[in-house]
Design brief:
- By secondary structure, the protein is of the alpha/beta class.
- The chain folds into two domains: about 120 residues, Roll (2,3-Dihydroxybiphenyl 1,2-Dioxygenase, domain 1), CATH 3.10.180; about 160 residues, 2,3-Dihydroxybiphenyl 1,2-Dioxygenase, domain 1 (Roll).
- The protein contains six helices and 18 strands.
- Strands 1, 2, 3, 4, 5, 6, 7, 8 and 18 form a nine-stranded mixed beta sheet that branches. The protein has a nine-stranded mixed beta sheet with strand order 14-15-16-13-9-12-11-10-17, covered by helices on one side.
- A hairpin with a 6-residue loop joins strand 14 and strand 15.
- It is globular.
- The chain starts with a strand and ends with a strand.
- The structure holds the ligand CC(C)C(=O)/C=C/C(C(=O)O)=C(/O)C(=O)O and fe (ii) ion.
């Protein structure tokens, strides 16, 4: 069974790289790493060289999702496994790895055609990351909407060894959402998958230090007319306090805080959770219809 370190980075497509770089730097409070070159920007929320890559495209949304493996041995195991299972992993060439500041990497497509990159390690920055005024701790999770949830969950669980933390169900019992963690990373979900009519990125989330960061962020966003579209509230599934807002292209971002963690040995069983608003938000707030609307997935 293959083992992961964490959700490593997200590559987003944005319509105006400079505008989005300023937004992710000044409003989301990530570090811009290096200058914008050839319409590509890198931002970081840790000592990693980057956790967010911005690329120019007229279709804003997701380009790919990068996971860091626990070790080079696990990276090699993952490559062999995906080859054996017929997912045709392709190694990333030296020039691109130099741009991404990663050592070894391969890409493959999941059953929906979404590009995933698995890498063994990323260059670490000497300069400490000192987020301010919103204390962002890490890239936390990404959520996709897919046309076939059952097959997608099966692939991530049975082939890729992601664990199911919880699922949500309609009144007739049908599953419509799965929260998955990249084993043995303890956090409740680094990857969420929702049943949808089409393939779309729903949101990406950054973890912040505490409730003060959510309050500070809310006022800063509202003062600059950035749409805050849901929250603050508390999700029942992970137990986290959340707040969702929109980036300049209308992509949905979430700040999250205080998510449940699972032990590697003897974790609790996944729960079947209902579809009610109270399960989505224990504080019963309403979400704005713009949530998750923009999020083209490059396939
Ligand atoms: C709206 C979905 C179905 C939901 O319940 C979301 C919950 C959580 C959580 O429990 O943390 C998320 O972070 C999320 O999917 O955004
Ligand atoms: Fe989320």
């Amino acid at each position: 069974m293959i083992r992961y370190k964490k959700l490593g980075y997200i590559a987003l497509n944005v319509t105006d790289v400079e505008r989005s770089t300023h937004f992710y730097r000044d409003m989301v409070c990530l570090d811009q790493v290096g200058e914008i070159k050839e319409d590509v920007a890198f931002l970081s929320s840790s000592s990693d060289y980057h956790n967010l890559m911005l690329n120019k495209s007229d279709k804003p949304g997701l380009k790919r999702i990068g996971f860091e493996m626990e070790s080079t041995k696990e990276w090699e195991k993952a490559f062999e496994l995906l080859k054996k299972e017929g997912y045709a992993p392709v190694e990333v060439d030296k020039e691109e790895r130099a741009l991404l500041k990663i050592d070894k990497a391969f890409r493959f497509r999941d059953p929906n055609g979404v590009t995933f990159e698995f890498y063994n390690k990323m260059m670490q920055r000497a300069k400490p990351y000192e987020p301010s005024p919103v204390r962002v701790l890490k890239l936390d999770h990404v959520v996709l909407r897919v046309p076939n949830l059952q097959d997608t969950v099966r692939f991530f669980n049975e082939v890729l060894n992601f664990k199911i933390s919880d699922t949500r169900h309609k009144p007739d019992g049908e599953m419509y959402f799965a929260f998955m963690r990249c084993f043995p990373n303890p956090f409740h979900h680094s990857f969420g998958i929702s049943q949808g009519d089409d393939l779309r990125m729903f949101h990406i989330a950054y973890k912040v230090e505490d409730i003060n960061d959510i309050g500070i962020a809310r006022n800063r966003l509202i003062n600059l007319d950035v749409p805050v579209i849901f929250g603050p509230g508390r999700h029942l599934a992970s137990g986290s306090i959340f707040m969702y807002f929109l980036d300049p292209d209308g992509l949905t971002l979430e700040y999250t805080q205080d998510m449940e963690e699972f032990p590697e040995e003897n974790p609790r069983e996944p729960r079947m959770l209902d579809h009610t608003l109270r399960t989505t938000d224990l504080w019963e707030g309403a979400s704005d219809p713009r949530i998750g609307k923009v999020g083209h997935v490059e396939v």
